[in-house]
Every structure is written in C-alpha cells, then in structure tokens.
C-alpha cells in the first residue's frame, strides 16, 4: 500500500530534470585515445560464475562473457580487480554485456549522442523509446535488473515525493496516479512478474524519480573505499549520477582505479566512460585520489563526498 508523505512541486515530482549541465565539467575536445586491450580470460571458477549471471533483457542464449566489461577492459598496469563475491551486484556489473567495439552512443530516438568522444564502450541494454532513462534512471535500471534476476520482490524505489513503490505491489494490482502534486493509490490489473511487466513498472519509476530521490535512498561512503556498484551522485535539478562498474587496485601503492558508466540527458544508451582528463593512457579507467576535493568525469564534476552505496 502507498504511504502518503510530504508532497513536492510537480516539476520535481516528474523527475525529468534529473540530469543537467549547470554544474557539469567543461566540454571536451576530441581526443585520440588508444583502445583498452582485452582483459585476460578469467579462471575457470570466475568464468563459471559469470556464466551463472542472468541479464534478463537479452534474448535467451545470446549472452557471452567474451563480450563483457571484464573481457573488454583489462586493469591498469600493476593492478588487479578487487575481489567481489559471485552473485553480488558488483560481480553482475563486471560481466555486463557490451555492444561491439566502436559502436556509437545513440539517444532514445535513434539520433547520435553529442559528443561521441566521451565513451569507451556501449552497454548492450536498451535505452527505451521515450526520453525517460536518463542518468539516475540508468542506475535504477541496472540495480533493478540485478534484483529482478534474483528476486523480483526485492525491487522497490522511491519517487521524488518520497513514496516507496514496490514492484511486487505494482504487478499485484496496487498502482498509483499523480494528481497535481499528490501521489494517490490507484488500482491496476494484476499481472505476472514478467520482464515486460517489469519494464513498464520501471518507466513509471523513471517518470517520477530522479537524482534527488535516488540520492536519498543511498548511503554515503568514503571515496577511498569505493567498490563496484557504488554511485557517484549529485542530487538536484540539475544533478547527475554515474555508476561504478568495476574497481582495480595497484599491488604496491594501493591506489584504486574505477570504470564508470552513465546515461545522460536526453535519455541515451548507457556507456562506459572514457578518461579524457589528461590520463589518456588509462583508457576507460579513472584514478581515485581521495585527497582531492573533486572527482571529474567527462560530463560532470562531482565532490569527493558524492560517493554513495545501495
């Protein structure tokens, strides 16, 4: 059942201003960056665990770990990926499927993203057909897809109004409707928790959630302790969110490096970000320096306090 909470102005409730450019980093010029070398094949145990991951939006039988994040992007020299438990969110992200190398990023309407020089790879997952799956929505999508594969009853997210909408309630006939600045309970057909129904639920969440609501659901963590599955997020309107896909650590210095993925505005295909900030040799990896006040990504600069965790 929906719990009625404090209401917010409808412009925020809609969640459509989740991403923006007011606080973003300067536009980058095209750079010639060497492509990442393919990662070494995982050992038999890790390969078996990767094969056990499910990516429910893919046609059955089409997934291959050789077209995954882990295989496309080797850690920086002297580094190893941090340990993640098989079955965890971090492990699931590490083996996300990618489209072929060189694939451009497209918007939800099929047009090309501008610019095209900030991505190192494109995730093999749909962007939808409406201008909904923007930055925070992409984070929500991946977290929800992971939960859906394990237990659909786990899936729930807050709207900007503060209402917690559970997928289990939604497909069970307990929907909602928005009237002005109010979110009201509304009956809907009872359905089975198929992936098609799940995607309709997510589109409703994308419409009325954003960086503000997602940032409230997450727990702050120190940048020095970054792990796969963490989120760099600045809640607001505008705001932005970038997901940490993977983390590697240098064997002698202990320094950490991260792979990052985002969507942006307008809604677009999720993509692995390219390091364009003077460290082209890192390819898609970004060095983490907890002593610096800011953490720059190609289209947004975060504060070091902006790292959060599910």
List keywords for this structure.
single chain; 310 residues; alpha+beta; two-stranded antiparallel ribbon; 8 helices; globular; disordered N terminus
Shape: globular
> Largest beta sheet, briefly?
9 strands, antiparallel
The count of strands amounts to: 15
Determine the N-to-C terminus distance.
23 Å
How many domain modules? 1
Topology order in helix (H) and strand (E) letters:
HHHEHEHEEHEEHHEEEEEEEEE
Instruction: Give the quaternary arrangement of the chains.
Output: single chain
Radius of gyration: 19 Å
Helix content: 10-25%
Instruction: Please state the structural category.
Output: alpha+beta
Q: Secondary-structure map with pairings?
A:
Elements: H1 10-13, H2 44-52, H3 69-72, E1 79-81, H4 89-94, E2 119-122, H5 135-150, E3 156-158, E4 164-166, H6 167-171, E5 174-179, E6 182-187, H7 195-208, H8 211-217, E7 219-220, E8 231-234, E9 240-250, E10 256-262, E11 271-273, E12 285-287, E13 294-297, E14 300-303, E15 307-309
Antiparallel strand pairs: 1-9, 2-11, 3-4, 5-6, 7-15, 8-9, 8-15, 9-10, 10-11, 10-12, 13-14
Helix pairs in contact: 5-7
InterPro entries: DUF4846
Organism: Hymenobacter psychrotolerans DSM 18569
Protein name: DUF4846 domain-containing protein
């Amino acid at each position: 059942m929906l719990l009625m909470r404090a209401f917010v102005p409808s412009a925020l409730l809609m969640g459509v201003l989740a991403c923006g450019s007011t606080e973003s980093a300067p536009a980058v010029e095209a750079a010639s960056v060497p492509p990442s070398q393919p990662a070494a094949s995982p050992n038999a145990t890790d390969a078996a665990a990767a094969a056990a991951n499910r990516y429910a939006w893919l046609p059955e039988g089409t997934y291959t770990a050789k077209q995954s994040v882990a295989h496309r992007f080797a850690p920086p020299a002297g580094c190893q990926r941090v340990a993640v438990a098989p079955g965890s969110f971090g492990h699931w992200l590490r083996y996300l499927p990618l489209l072929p190398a060189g694939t451009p990023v497209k918007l939800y309407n099929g047009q090309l993203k501008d610019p095209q020089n900030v991505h190192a790879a494109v995730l093999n997952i749909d962007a939808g057909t409406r201008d909904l799956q923007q930055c925070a929505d992409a984070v929500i999508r991946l977290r929800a897809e992971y939960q859906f594969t394990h237990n659909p009853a786990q899936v729930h997210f807050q709207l900007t109004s503060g209402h917690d909408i559970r997928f289990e309630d939604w497909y069970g006939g307990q929907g909602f409707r928005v009237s002005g600045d109010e979110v009201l309970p509304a009956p809907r057909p009872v359905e089975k928790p198929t992936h098609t129904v799940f995607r309709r639920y997510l589109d409703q969440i994308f419409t009325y959630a954003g960086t503000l609501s997602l940032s409230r659901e997450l727990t702050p963590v120190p940048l020095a302790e970054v792990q796969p599955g963490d989120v760099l997020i600045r809640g607001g309107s505008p705001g932005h969110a970038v997901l940490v896909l993977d983390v590697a650590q240098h064997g002698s210095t202990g320094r950490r490096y991260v792979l990052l993925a985002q969507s942006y505005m307008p809604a677009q295909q999720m993509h692995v970000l390219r390091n364009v900030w003077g460290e082209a040799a890192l390819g898609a990896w970004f060095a983490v320096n907890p002593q610096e006040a800011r953490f720059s990504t190609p289209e947004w600069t975060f504060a070091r306090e902006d790292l959060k965790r599910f």
